[in-house]
Amino acid sequence: MKNFININSKINEFNKVINISSDKSISIRCILLASQAIGVSKIYNILESDDVMNAFKAIKKLGIDYKRKKNHYKIYGLGINGYHTNKKLSINAGNSGTLARLILGLLINCKNGITLFGDKSLSKRDFSRVTNPLRLFGANIESDNKKLPVKISGSEFLRPISYFEKLGSAQCKSAVMLAALKCPGITRIKAVKSRNHTELLFRNLKIPIKVFKKKRFDLIEVNGLKNFKGFEYVVPGDISSCSFFLVLTLLSEKSKMLIKNVNVNDTRTGIIKILNKMNANIKLINKKKYKGESVADILVKSKKNLKGINCSSKLNSSAIDEFLIIFLVASKAKGISSFYNLSELNKKESPRLDIAVKILKKIGVKIIRKKDNLKIFGDPELKLKGKYIIKNFRKDHRVVMMSCIAALTLGGKWKISDKNSVNTSFPNFFKIIKSVGARIH
Ligand code: S3P
Fold it and tell me: Which end of the chain offers a freer environment for a tag, N or C, measured as fewer CB atoms within 10 Å?
């Protein structure tokens, strides 16, 4: 089966209501926490993507049963000491940094050596950001060059830690919080602000947690060794997946889209703040609270006079997975857009900062990159006629989706490789794109 797509024409003049696929971060957290709860959890509307399925396979290996029901998954948790770790095991995290990093936190009390590995892309990513704090708890961790595979053997003599998470990485913060569950006493984390789904779930499950909010960071305290009960959760839509449709609509002509039931937690909505500062008029409607998360329908319309942005790096963490698509908007906006301190972008499924610069240069956008800062010289008249071949050497799902949106809004003839990588986070991406009117083959 061919693993590339061709897109040869733009789309315009659509008016659609869509449901977006479920949130990946929350789906993975629900599975991991349900595997640690006592009794049955029921998780509705879970994302059935490769990353999330790897989370199911991982808990199964650790002795936790689950069943797929008609509209939910049942997970049979055995408590915070319930993983079966008597024999040596290996766990494959596939492409998922979230799964790999978070599950390591839950393994600091495992009885035998567990080897964690992943695909080519994940094996290139840094794991010292989680292995360093987890070693402080007393876990034994072996890894070459700070990369996967990582071998972890837990300790019976765990001690709580105080840790400063300086990167603004929710994966790192969450790994430490999950490890804290396994450890007597209070673990204290000072964490540069990042998505807070783990904190909200802990609070909901009545896991003893305190969060003190400061300007640039949060102080989090978790009191360990407290079991908690199975739970029910309905996973909302993923704003990161939604972002591709926001931009598709914004850059198309005479179009409008209502995207239903999206998680609009403030720690995730950087994309909306950034696009609205660029003169978009994206509205949140029917906003409500669900278990501490905010959920809303998002209304977006085409916009002609978008303008450049001087984007404060304070917004980086709440838009961390959206920069590829934001750069595309900057390329079509009037004036210069500046972005700062983007080093974390190069530590994702592929070096996204390098790749964004390559793709935008390929399509004729003027860019100046100085270290981790980017200046994009936008052109509202940007229209493409040439042929563009996107070789996605690390099979990055977000590179595929960003390239598709570029093709559908700017024109030209595109051949985009590794189309199947969208299954990582957004398996029905092409189905929705086609339903909006795109002709792809
Ligand atoms: C995630 C956190 C972010 C994000 C990733 C999902 C999470 O990574 O890029 O896609 O679920 O915690 P970092 O923690 O590395 O910033």
Answer: N
User: DSSP state, 319?
Assistant: G
Give the atom of ligand 1 at the shortest distance from the alpha carbon of 240: 10
pLDDT band at 351 (very low <50, low <70, confident <90, very high): very high
How are the residues of the chain apportioned to helix, strand and coil, as percentages rounded to the nearest 5?
A: 35, 30, 35
Q: Could you tell me which of 240, 158, 286, 274 has the C-alpha nearest to residue 425?
A: 240
Quick one: average pLDDT of 78-86?
Answer: 96
Q: CA dist 422 to 3, 128, 161, 394, 395, Å?
A: 11, 27, 38, 12, 9
Our answer to whether residue 297 is catalytic in this structure is no
Burial of 54 per CB tally in 10 Å (0-12, 13-18, 19+): buried
Average pLDDT over residues 216-235: 97
Ligand 1 proximity of 247 Cβ (cutoff 6 Å): no
- Once rounded to an integer, what is the mean pLDDT over residues 258-284? 98
Q: Find the 98 Cα to ligand 1 centroid distance in Å.
A: 6
- Please give the Cα distance from 243 to 266 (Å, whole number): 15
196 CB-side CA count, 13 A: 25
Question: Quick one: pLDDT band at residue 198, thresholds 50, 70, 90?
Answer: very high
3-state secondary structure of 21: coil
pTM of the entire predicted model: 0.98
SS3 342: coil
Q: Is the CB of 171 under 6 A from ligand 1?
A: yes
Whole-angstrom CA distances from 288 to 44, 369, 411 are: 18, 40, 38
> What domains, with CATH codes, occur in the chain?
4-22+236-435 (3.65.10.10), 24-234 (3.65.10.10)
The share of the chain scoring above pLDDT 90, in percent, equals 97
Over residues 193-221, mean pLDDT: 97
Residue whose entry in the numeric block shows the structure tokens 């949106």: 405
